[in-house]
């Protein structure tokens, strides 16, 4: 495919890239050098800047500062089309294939085969060629008439990769390619990547699973907070070491966590299971306690939170709230038991953007403010009190929630449940997309909830944050709680190793 | 930590879950295929059933003369529906946000009025044809600009354009019938070989050409990609907006062509072109039912144009009130759209 001459020279080189979105810096001086013929891993926590960096190479973003150099030539205005012409192809995590197309049509879209000398499609040739290619690279035979919509996630992934292969790529960029694959399919993918690498194709591989990086790559670059903190040879480096580089060790004074003596158990979960999502999940939560849950997408942590709030019906196990077993899967009943869910996508599920701060705050507790008609005065007093207590920055209680910053919207989402006098708080990624100052305020608020006797469960993928605000931490991996940590005695890299299944991989290897 | 694009989309979660719950694939795909088959089979059965019922009850129904008649009568709606089909292909078949061109019927009305007015003013057929097609193209261009440049949803953009165009027609004709006659027009409205009207041959020829382009060239394939999954089309390096704009220009041209056909059919331009909208939309939407993948196709649209034509014709032969026809058409829209939407939902679930 690509010539192997000049192996070792840089094929993609990003130098001191700065990229801002609005006022915020996604990348603040990141560099990345990918050598021709190498399998280069790129890792970093959520928000470290990986996606932005990839989109720069794809020509989807343009750097504010720094240079993008491909094959020794600097490109100021890289476009997706130009990137493709230069032989750089991307395997995105969402499969961009037209569902109503046959495999052949999907593979050749944009470079269709025609009957020679006519403007007409040669569908038979496209079908034949695609069958050949799929057979050659994957040993995969799909029915001729199969539409993309009929394929499994893994098969779609394979078709997506094959699309790139048809173009004889020089560089293939994989963005979390195994997110939708099961182990066996992932192994197939790794074999293919090794074969492509042997044929001289340069691979840039982005993954959350550090085990994969260690297995597959020969070099790895670690991004943290928009900067590259290290580029190392993988030989002689462990997943745990890479993990340690991904997280910032000095946690500092970010987390104002009060000491609260835990009270009685208010939530007891035993052997909870939801078929296909999680299994055998047990834990307890006490008044005044903050419990953290973490895991990769699909690890089951998020689904546990949904199930606790009654959004999904468990297929096994028991949940008890304040000693009473819960049988129904009913969010309304859950709020009556004084459970509160602050969802991750607050703009969609957490607050009503076009309603005022007051209306949002009392939305879940209108019963308290109405005897037939709503007592606007009482509603207002309650909201003013909460706005003061939570230090919500707003032009007044009548301001529309959409005019507030992300952090303050999140506080309104929490105020809604405070007004409802909830006692058990389930917070799903409470600090996603808010700035650092607002994060600290939300941390303070979590501590305050605990101090006032509430029980708080925080689901987050930011491990440092979790260790800072929680008492205990449960790690989910592939549907099970694989480990429990006492937050104050734990360092982020210890947790990360479990989150990414680094030990799992070691077990596989051993 | 704050600003990076959302790293793992919610859809990834869904995919993971889907995979975990049912690793085998025959389940939903099989169910969907069955439902598709049922819908297509049902549609064809209804088509045949309607033909049978009418041929039994109305003696003239299945004569060559009558079939030719239906083809000829369907030519105008058929050409418009094919234009609409192209817009739906390029814009996607989502009923609310997808491709639609509501201005087509009004476009035909104005194009016809332009043709008739030019003819009446003493211009030749060449000028009148150019005027009609130019009018259609201009309307298409306005639609294209409103949708691709201003970013207005096609449903709204073309609704607005429809009203403007209908108003222009009123201004031009003073809401009167503008008669027109010429050799070209008479030739178009005459009978052709086998006693089948020339308009029927025009419809078949037009369908053949457009179907060849849409179903059998890379251009057509790309058109489908743009409508079905714009992100995939973009990833394949296709200029999505140009395709969408092109689809509106093409449907505008179809409006102009239909205008010419209607001048010949009615020997002039008449008012009330807007009444054509419902049958055209029915025809284009119903057309998807006649395709294997449940997508809009040109040949499917021709079939459904004939179906609607036979329906109207049969009602006429049986002396059933024509007001009932729009009722049946409205019902068909509801049926087809809900069936395909339900299927689509199953597919995405």
UniProtKB/TrEMBL annotation, chain A:
Keywords: ATP-binding, Membrane, Nucleotide-binding, Repeat, Sugar transport, Transport. Residues 12-250, 260-503 form the ABC transporter domain. InterPro entries: AAA+_ATPase, ABC_carbohydrate_import_ATPase, ABC_transporter-like_ATP-bd, ABC_transporter-like_CS, P-loop_NTPase. It comes from the Bacteria. Belongs to the ABC transporter superfamily. This is Sugar ABC transporter.
From TrEMBL, chain B:
It is a multi-pass membrane protein. It comes from the Bacteria. Keywords: Cell inner membrane, Cell membrane, Membrane, Transmembrane, Transmembrane helix, Transport. The chain crosses the membrane at residues 42-64, 70-90, 102-121, 127-146, 153-174, 194-214, 243-266, 272-290, 297-318, 324-344. Pfam families: BPD_transp_2 (PF02653). It is found in: Cell membrane. PANTHER family: ABC TRANSPORTER PERMEASE PROTEIN YPHD-RELATED, ABC TRANSPORTER PERMEASE PROTEIN YPHD-RELATED-RELATED. This is Ribose ABC transporter permease.
